[in-house]
Design goal:
The chain is α/β, with parallel strands linked by helices. It has 2 domains: about 120 residues, Rossmann fold (3-Layer(aba) Sandwich), CATH 3.40.50; about 90 residues, 2-Layer Sandwich (Alpha-Beta Plaits), CATH 3.30.70. About 30% of the residues lie in helices and about 25% in strands. The strands form 2 sheets. A 6-stranded parallel sheet has the order 3-2-1-4-5-6, sandwiched between helices. The chain has a 5-stranded antiparallel sheet with strand order 7-8-11-9-10. It is elongated, with a radius of gyration of 20 Å.
C-alpha cells in the first residue's frame, strides 16, 4: 500500500511508524522540518517538507499512485482542504481525516471523506465509560463515533448461556471471546464461561443495553 500522511505531529508520526512497520510505502508531509524529529530512526519511508494543500507538493509525494491519503494535522482547515484535493482532484481511493473540533465533523462528512476520526470525541467516550462502566473497556471507536468495539467482562446471568440464547440487539455482535489468555472466534453455539471477556462490536447508542445483558 502507498500511503501519504499530511502532518508529522504525535498522531501522524505514530501512524507513519505503524504503517511503515507493516511494509507499506509511506510518505510524510509537513511544513515544519523539525516535526520529522518525531519519527523513530526505524522509519524507512520518505519525508517531504511542504504544504499538504499544495498540489505541486502532493505530486512530488506521489499522490497519483497513492492508495490512501491521511490528514492528521492540528488544523482542521488544512485537513479539510488537503483531503478535498486528494479526493476530488487526484481521485485517491481512500481518504481519511483527523477532525479536532467535534462541531466540524458534519462538514467533513458532507465532502464524503471516507473516514473521519475525532480524537476529542473518542477520548470523551472512553473516559465516560471508564467512569460510568468500569467493566466495559472501549478498544476503538470508528465512523465518527457511531460504532464502538468494546471489551466486556462477562458475568451474572449470561454465564452458562450460548451466544444464540443471549438475545443481544441486532445492532451488535460478539466478534471474539478472550478465555484463559486465548482468543476464540465464537459461533452461535459457543457457551459463555465465567471470566470470559467478550469483544463486542455495536452501535455506540446501545453499549449500555449490551452491557446489561452480558455483565449483570
Amino acid at each position: 500500500m502507498y500511503a501519504i500522511i499530511v502532518g508529522c505531529g504525535k498522531i501522524g508520526s505514530r501512524l507513519a511508524q505503524l504503517l511503515s512497520s507493516n511494509e507499506n510505502n509511506v510518505v510524510v508531509l509537513d511544513k515544519d522540518l523539525t516535526k520529522f524529529e518525531c519519527l523513530d530512526q526505524s522509519f524507512d519511508g520518505l519525508t517531504i517538507e511542504g504544504d499538504g494543500t499544495d498540489q505541486d507538493v502532493l505530486k512530488k509525494a506521489g499522490i497519483d499512485k497513492a492508495d490512501v491519503f491521511i490528514a492528521t494535522t492540528e488544523d482542521d482547515n488544512t485537513n479539510l482542504m488537503s483531503c478535498q484535493i486528494a479526493k476530488q482532484v487526484f481521485k485517491v481511493p481512500r481518504v481519511v481525516a483527523r477532525v479536532n473540533d467535534p462541531k466540524r465533523e458534519s462538514l467533513f462528512k458532507e465532502l464524503e471523506i471516507d473516514a473521519i476520526v475525532c480524537p476529542t470525541t473518542i477520548a470523551a467516550a472512553h473516559l465516560r465509560n471508564a467512569v460510568m462502566h468500569p467493566d466495559l473497556i472501549t478498544i476503538l471507536t470508528v465512523t465518527g463515533g457511531n460504532i464502538e468495539i468494546n471489551e466486556m467482562q462477562v458475568k451474572g446471568s449470561a454465564v452458562g448461556k450460548s451466544l444464540k440464547d443471549l438475545k443481544l440487539p441486532k445492532e451488535s455482535t460478539i466478534a471474539a471471546i478472550i478465555r484463559d489468555r486465548e482468543t476464540l472466534i465464537p459461533s452461535g453455539d459457543t457457551i459463555i464461561q465465567e471470566c470470559d471477556v467478550a469483544v463486542v462490536v455495536n452501535l455506540a447508542g446501545i453499549s449500555d443495553e449490551v452491557r446489561n445483558i452480558l455483565c449483570r
